[in-house]
Amino acid sequence: MLVFTYMAMSKCKECGKSISTLAKTCPGCGAPNPTRTSSSKSKKESYRPKGLVQILAAIGLVVAILWTAKGLFQFGSAGYKQVTNQNKKEKNVTKILVNNFTCEGEVISSFRGDTGSSGLFIDEYTVFYDANQRIESLQVESNNYYARRFQFNNISTTSSSISFGEGSYKIGEGSDTVYVDGYQAKISLGTGTFSGKLTGTYDRAALVANYNGKCFGIDKIIAR
């Protein structure tokens, strides 16, 4: 029985002679692997670096992260300046120390020859200190202001007392205006005694009001 084997034919990559694809050398020119040019070329053309997709994806991820960071954290020249300036401001801000205390007592007033009680007062004080922890101002909320202002900046302190007050000012409008010549008050840090005096005029008549009472919570006050 005869068996016929058919061999695939192709052209030599060097001389172009038709030869078997199984030939290891060209019988015409002797070129090695004479028929594998197209196969090798196609492999080269179809080759792509295995990590190219991963590299591109990583680059895209980094760009996205930086862009997001620019928005969230204000990176970039303008954002950097803004963040830097904000940090400088925060470093320059001094924390304000605040204390609170209460004073209670009675107001004795004199007006047009009549002297008597004008009621009880309850003053809620807030003490603000400067960067050197010295008292800078006092703010007060009271149920009986009796022509007193509610913020005092003229303050003097010793280790045993706090004195504060205001010069001339006016409260009200028109016929209800009270012209204050001055108000001075003093708190003893040892006993807590409160005393104050207001002088002025109301409806062209002299007005005098004296405050006497007791303060509580003054043990927290820093007096220098």
Spell out the blueprint of helices and strands.
Elements: E1 9-11, E2 18-20, H1 37-46, H2 52-73, H3 77-92, E3 98-111, E4 114-129, E5 135-142, E6 151-152, E7 154-157, E8 161-166, E9 169-171, E10 178-188, E11 193-202, E12 205-216
Antiparallel strand pairs: 1-2, 3-4, 3-12, 4-5, 5-6, 7-8, 8-10, 9-10, 10-11, 11-12
Radius of gyration: 48 Å
**Biggest sheet layout:** 10 strands, antiparallel
Question: What amount of the residues lies in strands?
Answer: 35-45%
Label the overall shape.
Answer: rod-shaped
Mean of pLDDT: 79
The total strand number stands at: 12
Order of helices and strands: EEHHHEEEEEEEEEE
CA distance, first residue to last residue: 127 Å
Query: Which class of the largest domain in CATH terms?
Result: Mainly Beta
What is this structure, in a nutshell?
21% of the residues lie in helices and 41% in strands.
How would you characterize this protein structure?
The protein has 224 residues and is of the alpha+beta class. It folds into three domains: 7-41, no CATH class; 65-94, no CATH class; 98-220, Lipocalin, CATH 2.40.128. It is 21% helix and 41% strand. It is built from three helices and twelve strands. Strands 3, 4, 5, 6, 7, 8, 9, 10, 11 and 12 form a ten-stranded antiparallel β-sheet that branches. The protein has a two-stranded antiparallel ribbon with strand order 1-2. The longest helix is centred in the N-terminal third of the chain and has 22 residues, at 52-73. The relative contact order is 0.11. Residues 1-6 and 38-47 have low confidence and may be disordered.
